[in-house]
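User: Need the bound-state model for biotin:
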Amino acid sequence: MISGIRLFDEVDSTQNIAHRLAEDGAPEGTLVIAEQQTNGRGRMGRKWVSPAGKGIWMSFVLRPGMPIHFAPQLTLLTAVALCRALRAAAQPLDIGIKWPNDLLIGGKKISGILLESTAEEERLRYVIAGVGISVNLTADDYPPELLDIATSLRIQLGKPLDRSEIIAGFFAQFQQLYAIYQREGFSPIQMLWEALSVTLHKPTRLFIDGAETIATPIGLSEQGALLARKDDGTVVPLFSAEQLLPA
Ligand code: BTN
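Assistant: Bound-state model below.
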């Protein structure tokens, strides 16, 4: 799966480096890892806290060559690989996936995924999969306002973990799932995702059609949308994490 590794002490964002390499023709599996990001980013342009030596900040190139509307499935596949790898590395922590791309422990975020794709004529040219894992951050590493919603494996376990082992574990999982996905399509990945999800089967405050509504997420659509059942029995698809409102 990994065709080459570029290691950096400091970058603005591993996403930017990986985009540049992909534009220059880097093959699938090109991996960019940095000890520190000065301008790490999350979804919706949010800042991603990426202090030196404390976490895993990495981006890798995929060239799945498929129609662009399949891109959300790759986010979900990455989340499954990450959840399985982190559960194995950080036993006995109960790590789950919040749709579509956050990994949580006890409601607090420990890891996030950012997939950025470029397409030509509705087909994916390449995808940059960015993964941030808060491995060995301590409470001092977070701005105070994030401490209620974010945590690290070290804070949760009470001891630091080896980052290389987690990276190796993640890519072993990713390679296995990506091969299944390319052979058999999304359904086996969907089943694994649903089993690891903390989003499903609980009545939840959702933002649907411009209004706040209580509905129950019941599963995923073929394309990775979250399906929620409203009180009147109708099932609606959700396309953005921002539609999930805080409890
Ligand atoms: C999110 O939860 O909003 C996604 C966070 C993704 C963070 C990772 S860290 C490595 C890569 N480089 C970035 O600038 N962002 C991603």
